[in-house]
Amino acid sequence: MTRVAVGCPDYPALAARIAARAGGGEIRFATRMRPKRADELIGGKLHFIVRHTLVARVEILRFEDRDDGRIDIVCAAALERVHPQPRRAHQGWRYLTDGDAPSADDDASGIADLPPHLYRELAELSLI
How distant, in Å, are the alpha carbons of 53, 68, 101 from that of 2? Predict the structure, then answer.
């Protein structure tokens, strides 16, 4: 799944937000409706879009009903940086196929450290 990290200008800001809101090694994200494919998503990843670029992900542990009728997406609080990919912003969350999911940034190229706007420009020029 993908979700826009509203208000986060870059990866360090997202990492700080996750760390500040984590409790007991978990973090919760509220949503209005349970995903139709919720059972398939458990053990999968929730990817974050920062400034039109996928930059990180967390593991989805479970879905829990709240007293107010909303649903909590309960995730591991360990944020994993991924190889950046340009993405359009959207509201709520979207499904991401396995083929479209970015890989973990395990190369030492430094591409993941580029500012999102510079990465986007280089990708548009097919340089990365």
Answer: 11, 24, 9
The string of DSSP codes covering 68-107 is: TS-EEEEEES--EEEEEEE----SSEE---TTTSPPB--S
pLDDT tens-place values along the chain, 128 residues long: 989 998 999 889 999 999 999 999 999 999 998 888 889 999 999 999 988 888 899 999 999 999 999 999 999 999 998 888 888 777 777 776 666 666 665 455 676 667 767 776 777 777 76
Q: For residues 70 and 43, give the distance between their C-alpha atoms in angstroms, rounded to a whole number.
A: 21
Determine the structural domain holding residue 37 and report its residue range.
Answer: 2-124
Nearest residue to 114 (alpha-carbon basis) of 10, 7, 17:
10
Looking at the structure of the chain, the number of domains it has is 1
Query: What contacts 54, CB < 8 A, 6 or more positions away?
Result: 2, 47, 48, 82, 84, 85, 86, 87, 102
